[in-house]
């Protein structure tokens, strides 16, 4: 799993990613505490608006950033975006109004929305081998899971000796460290995959989502994921500090419990996925998150119970997001993969754009228990939609016909086999020039 780190350029970029993630994680904890200081029990509303701004930036900026990345100097782009993010983090300790939070976070999130797809789009050029690229994607997921555990724990330890304002200094340092490792990485020249026409780079990923059944199911699961995650990220500070009257450290430890559950699932998943399909694993995670939200409305009346619920929620959360990269790889060619990952980044965050305001506004206007109920309904809807649009029979190799092609077309030479209904062949299918629509599935595929 760690063999991609032998590639010096990827190793530097991976360390840059980890540094930025740790900084972002501490900022997430500090932002929640800042919101509570500014708005008290209404912190959920402040957080909900701030995180909605994040989602708007991610949804609107990410596709364009990914499409434009091929035309810009990569290293200069990434370092500049890290510098902008570090500057914003350095200013955050000095805000005293909610609108100031919104303004600074807008700048930060726009920079992040441009950084992440540009970062992801260059990884295939660093690792030509498909197996190494797959491992690199797994490492990125592991880094994100570790961040969800390490950042709250680190924040909880630091909060015992410093104020939460100083956590933003750690965030700025993380971005500066990220920029330093990007500077030292030797990046390759642009590949053919990055010189596709601009419009295709911009819209190709969304087209794959529209036409590929498993990707439509993945998007439905993303809605369920956002519903459960939004309850944790928006309302933990309200539950812990306003409802239970506990400290800032207790908030950080509750978030760490969620991260611990996620990390546990991430460690167990490789073996699980040898026996279970991506669909069954992700739907099981969504069902688990729905169950936790329902239970939260009834039983989240004490800090120990919240910790238990958040551990289980984190477990379900990881089940829904970790296999996503596998589904994306199965659904794209190497040339279309950067556009598909950018589309996944934007569309999944569109789901968070729905969930974050719901979590914050319902909690502020009613109470966190009401937010549990509403988000349980949203999570359950995403789960049922995934079951409806993602076929249970989703084989790696699909037996299908090409009635629109001449019998001697060269594409039909790939895995051709006789079939009573005509010429058919079996191979992994993606939407491309030979498969403009998803073929009908046949149960006789091997």
From TrEMBL:
Keyword Cell membrane applies: yes
GO molecular function, one term: transmembrane transporter activity
Alphabetical list of InterPro entries matching this protein: MFS, MFS_trans_sf
One GO CC term on file: plasma membrane
Pfam families: MFS_1
Biased composition (Basic and acidic residues): 401-417
Sorted UniProt keywords: Cell membrane, Membrane, Transmembrane, Transmembrane helix
UniProt topology in membrane: Multi-pass membrane protein
Cross-referenced SUPFAM superfamilies: MFS general substrate transporter
Segments traversing the membrane: 12-34, 46-70, 101-127, 217-238, 250-269, 281-300, 306-328, 340-358, 370-390
Subcellular locations according to the entry: Cell membrane
Ranges where the record places region Disordered: 401-423
Name of protein: MFS transporter
Organism whose genome encodes this protein: Brevundimonas naejangsanensis
